[in-house]
Amino acid sequence: MKLLPKKYYYIGMELPGNGRSDPMPPGLMVSLYDLVYSIQVVVKHFRWDTFIFMGHSMGCSVGYIYNISYPGKMSKLIQLDPISIGFVTPVEKFSYWYKISFKAYFDNYDRYNVKKDDRPKYTREEAVSKLIKRRGFTEEAAEETLARTSEPAGHGYVRFTFDDRFEAMTYPPVSPDYIKKLLTNMKIPILTILADESIKKGRYRETQFLLDDKSFPNNNYRVREVVGHHDLHVVYPERIASFVSQFILYGFEGLDRKSKL
Question: How many other CB atoms are found less than 10 A from the CB of residue 108?
C-alpha cells in the first residue's frame, strides 16, 4: 500500500475465516460463491456505487465472479497471479474434481472442523518459520502476517486462526471453453500480473488465454509477467507496484506508457 497512489482510499478485506474475520459456521463446506457474497457485504457497508478491486490467487476468482454477478459495480479489476482459476475442469477430469472438492473434505472432516482450543500450538519462532517455509515469505512479511493470523495460546505459545476449510475450497467445475467465454466477455479494464515461476510450473495450462491480451475481444485486458513466485507481491512489492499504480491512475494509457520505459 505504501507504494500505491496516495489519492485513493484502500481497504484490505479479510474474508471469513481469515485474519480477524469470523469464520463460516462449523461443519459446513465453504464454496467460492460464499466468498463472493462477502464482497457484497463490504460494498453495502460502505455504500459504494463503484470501486476498484485487486485480488491475489483465489481472491481473483472471487473478484471475477462478483463482477459477473453484480455488473456495473467494479470499475477496474487487478489480478495478482490468479492461478486459483484451477477450478477449470475438463470433462475427463471430473472425477478428480469431485475427489479434491468433496471427498477430500469429508475424509478430513475432523481436521477441518477442529475446535479452536484443540488446534496445534507453536512458539512464535516456530510459527514464523512455518510461514517462511510454506509461503516463501521474508521474516518481516511472516511477522506481519502472523500478527493477523494467530492468537495467544498461553505460556508464550500461539495458534493459527486460519480456517483450514480453505484447503478444501469448493469450486464449481467449469469447462475450459466455458470459463474462457465467461471471462473474456467482461468489459471492464483488467490488469493481470503473472509470476514467471507460476507460468513455468504449468499453472496456466488450462487457462492459456490469460497469457494473451488478444484473447479478450473487447480489448479490455492487459497482462504483465514479473519475475518471482506466487506471493511476489508480499516479498517483492516494488516489482508490481508501478504497473498497478499506472493502471489505477491512467488506465491502459498509463500502463502502456510504463511498459515502454
Answer: 14
End-to-end CA distance of the chain: 23
Concatenate the DSSP letters of all residues of 65-131 into one string: HHHHHSTTSEEEEEEE--TTGGGB--GGGHHHHHIIIIIHHHHTHHHHT--GGGS--EEHHHHHHHH
Residue that is written with C-alpha cell 459495480 in the block: 73
- Grid coordinates representing 36 are 463472493
Whole-number pLDDT of residue 260: 45
Q: For 24-55, how does the pLDDT look when each residue is reduced to its tens digit (9 = 90+)? A: 998 999 999 999 999 999 999 999 999 999 99
> What is the structure's pLDDT at 257?
66
**Gap between the Cα atoms of 261 and 254, Å rounded:** 11
Looking at the whole model, is its pTM more than 0.85?
Answer: yes
CA distance 58 to 12: 15
d(CA 198, CA 190): 19
Q: What is the CA radius of gyration of the chain?
A: 19
